[in-house]
Design goal:
Largest sheet: 8 strands, mixed
Order of helices and strands: HHHHHEHEHEHEHEHEHEEH
Radius of gyration: 21 Å
Low-confidence stretches: 1-13
Shape: elongated
Number of helices: 12
Strand order of the largest sheet: 3-2-4-1-5-6-7-8
Strand content: 5-15%
Oligomer: single chain
Mean pLDDT: 88
Distance between the termini: 42 Å
Number of strands: 8
Length: 318
């Protein structure tokens, strides 16, 4: 059952305004720069393209993606298909949409019980808070949930998840700090089956992607879940911090190699001028971006909408 009051960027006009406001740092760095460059009275010459390239790179859209965008504008200009900055702006907007639209795929709970979501990410990305926000969204859709406190590595992590579970009135399976995280995941899946819950969300220890022992623990958790149900986990959700820029791509490769990431949450987009990283991620991987984080509040985790995102970071049409 869908809650008609639930926030979605695609259906609530007010949320687009909030998205644009929260992405203002990127808009100021990228959108204002582009609208200043791609004016109707500005000829499409080499100097303009060089400045545009610098602006796109500064927003962390990435070298490969930026070069492809510039080359497409240049090719259209050489064929006289576009002749001024305003036309180049429209082409750039469409090219960005073509890159990122395929990644705008929201999380869908499959018709399997329990649907198991394993959440991974490095320290400091807001992983546990993201779990709470995702749980709240799924709860508002009418799903019965269970949480697993699989971050037994960090002293306060179990207590933090318990606080959220109390606030949301969602039960949590937990053991003491230092317990075997895979055992916690095993017990939680057994409990989820017994209680006939719809969704089990498994927290894991935040780790640097270069920490080999902890990455092996992740693999073990994944194996334990798969052993009980060959299709589990049904979603491996990687939480990425937008403020880390291109380092997010390195994290994605390491986590993907370890546990086959199937979906992404990009957090802290409100706190960076480098919000173009979502475009770099989409170009490089094509993975679904399930949600983006645009603030600290519970309603500040929103389903990713490609058109709203592109318009928010580009700002006003020049």
């Amino acid at each position: 059952m869908i809650n008609p009051n639930r926030d979605t960027t695609s259906t609530t006009p007010g949320l687009f305004g909030r998205l644009r406001e929260r992405l203002s740092k990127t808009t100021q760095a990228l959108g204002l720069g582009i609208s200043d460059l791609l004016r109707k009275d500005r000829p499409l010459d080499a100097a303009l393209l060089d400045e545009l390239e610098t602006t796109l790179l500064a927003a962390d859209i990435g070298v490969e993606t930026t070069q492809a965008l510039i080359a497409d504008i240049d090719n259209h200009a050489r064929r006289r298909e576009i002749t001024d900055g305003a036309a180049a702006y429209r082409l750039l907007r469409q090219d960005l949409l073509n890159i990122i639209q395929p990644s705008a795929r929201p999380l869908t709970v499959a018709n399997v019980k329990p649907f198991v979501v394993m959440v991974v990410g490095v320290n400091g990305v807001g992983k546990t808070t993201t779990i709470a926000k995702v749980a709240r969204r799924l709860q508002s859709d009418g799903h019965k949930l269970l949480l697993a406190a699989g971050d037994t590595f960090r002293a306060a992590a179990v207590e933090q998840l318990k606080v959220w579970s109390d606030r949301l009135n969602i039960p949590v399976v937990a053991q003491e700090t230092g317990a075997d995280a895979a055992a916690v995941a095993h017990d939680a899946l057994q409990a989820a089956i017994a209680r006939k819950v719809d969704v089990l969300i498994v927290d894991t220890a935040g780790r640097q992607h270069t920490h080999s022992a902890l990455m092996e623990e992740l693999k073990k958790i994944h194996r334990v879940l798969s052993k009980q149900d060959a299709t589990s986990p049904h979603e491996v959700l990687l939480v990425l911090d937008a403020t880390t820029g291109q380092n997010a791509l390195s994290q994605l490769k390491h986590f993907g190699d370890a546990v086959n990431v199937t979906g992404l949450v990009v957090t802290k987009l409100d706190g960076t001028a480098k919000g173009g990283i979502a475009i770099a991620i989409a170009k490089k991987t094509g993975l679904p971006i399930r949600y983006i984080g645009i603030g600290e509040g519970m309603d500040d985790l929103v389903e990713f909408n490609a058109e709203n995102y592109v318009d928010a970071i580009l700002g006003s049409t020049p």
